[in-house]
Amino acid sequence: MSFLDYFKGKKSNNTANVAKERLQIIVAHERGQRDQPDYLPQLQQELLAVIRKYVQISDDMVQVEVDRNESCSILELNVTLPER
Amino acid sequence: MARIIVVTSGKGGVGKTTTSASISTGLAKRGHKTVVIDFDVGLRNLDLIMNCERRVVYDFVNVIQGEASLNQALIRDKRVNTLYILPASQTREKEALTKEGVEKVINELSETFDYIVCDSPAGIEHGAMMALYYADEAVVVTNPEVSSVRDSDRILGILQSKSRRAEMSQDPVKEHLLLTRYNPARVERGEMLSVADVEEILAIPLLGVIPESQIVLNASNQGVPVILEEDSDAGQAYEDAVARLLGEEREHRFMTSQKKGFFSRMFKGG
Fold first, then answer.
1. Sequence spans of domains, chain A
2. CB contact under 8 A, A1 and B269
3. Is B82 part of any known ligand binding site?
4. Does B201 sit within 8 Å of A23, measured CB to CB?
5. The pTM is what?
6. What are the helix and strand counts (H, E) for chain B?
7. Which residue of B has its CA nearest to A19?
8. CB atoms within 10 A of CB A34
9. pLDDT, position A78
10. With contact defined as beta carbons under 8 Å apart, do B46 and B17 qualify?
11. Residue B270's pLDDT band (cuts 50, 70, 90)
12. How many CB atoms neighbour CB A32 within 10 A?
């Protein structure tokens, strides 16, 4: 800090907080995908292609997730159809 | 039975080899018979950091392939006599580190050593996977910086799913966070993630905080593990980390900046 800066006071932009918030979001997202089987992205693409034969939907309107319980796994498919 | 410790991070350049050199030297200094293995086939550097680059005759891959015995390949440290280095191969393909080959070498070392420290290469490819596969404990080296923290989280996921302990459903690999290149003054100015921030995101126990220090470069220039620079802050921080690794309770140091006086701030800049 130079002589003049000392009197101007500290800058208020706290970049560490921005870093922390960004990290919390991306890490939470990646942890969610960590246990997912490898075939999931391709399955999502192919499902999207099938649905598009009938209804025009965008990429983010199909969500595929696998929920693992102790005795079984559930493949959860969530398709949002556009409003008519 | 030796305790197997992997030093890993995902991201490169965060201080894995520096840490491997210091932790293995610290364990050996306390009388534990320790070997440190360089898993970075093709880009070996542990030998330089440990100042034994001119004494390498045989390497890890030679031992795996039966071209040399372990005793021929192990290099005894000249400063600490309970410390040995097993260098990586500089010329072979990474794939020469087979799972079976690595296991054979680790089993043989386990018979006579107390600690086996595995210095992982960067990334999450074959060499890094082999370095962490047999681990009992992991020291995850992280810089207070977004890409390093994210990569550390990825490595933690791999330790929890792809290590031998995970595959065999044994007790999980014991994880330790080592935050390196920490600059308390920048943290106080809000320019760098704090220890608490990184702990909160990664959610693993803190082994130590190594302050950013000019000593680290000076030490590597000369091939001296930082922990042997006993008067330096970074050296003492590594010493504390080794003590904690062995179960000692030690208060964390070097986490706040040395406040400069009014005059030095006015005239020298802060």
1. 22-80
2. yes
3. no
4. yes
5. 0.85
6. 13, 8
7. B146
8. 13
9. 87
10. yes
11. very low
12. 10
Asked if A27 reaches chain B (Cβ–Cβ under 8 Å), the answer is yes
What is the longest distance spanned by two Cα atoms in chain B? Answer: 65
Q: Does A13 touch chain B (CB under 8 A)?
A: yes
Angle between helix axes B214-222 and B233-245 (nearest 10 degrees) is 80
Tell me if B201 and A30 make a contact (CB, 8 A cut-off). Answer: no
Please indicate if any CB of chain B lies within 8 Å of the CB of A8.
no
In this structure, of A66-70, B188-192, B225-229, the range with the lowest mean pLDDT score is: A66-70
In chain B the domains, ranked by start, together with CATH numbers, are: 3-246 (3.40.50.300)
| CATH code of the domain occupying A22-80 | 3.30.1070.10
Q: What counts of helices (H) and strands (E) characterise chain A?
A: 3, 2
The residue assigned the tokens 């996921």 is: B157
Phi, psi of B226 (to 5 degrees): -55, -35
Quote the CA–CA distance of B189 and B117 in Å, as a whole number.
36
Tokens of B174: 């014991």
pLDDT digits (tens, 9 = 90+) for B101-135: 999 999 999 999 999 999 999 999 999 999 999 99
Going by the DSSP 8-state scheme, the letter that residue B67 receives in this structure is S
CA pair distance B177, B190, nearest whole angstrom: 21
ipTM of the complex: 0.85
B19 has binding-site annotation:
no
pLDDT band at B265 (very low <50, low <70, confident <90, very high): low
Number of A/B CB contacts below 8 angstroms equals 50
Convert the pLDDT of each residue in A10-53 to its tens digit: 555 799 999 999 999 999 988 887 777 778 888 888 988 999 99
Q: Which residue has the tokens 């004494």?
A: B55
* CA–CA distance, B123 with B129 (Å, rounded to integer): 9
Reduce the DSSP state of residue B16 to 3 states and report it.
Answer: helix
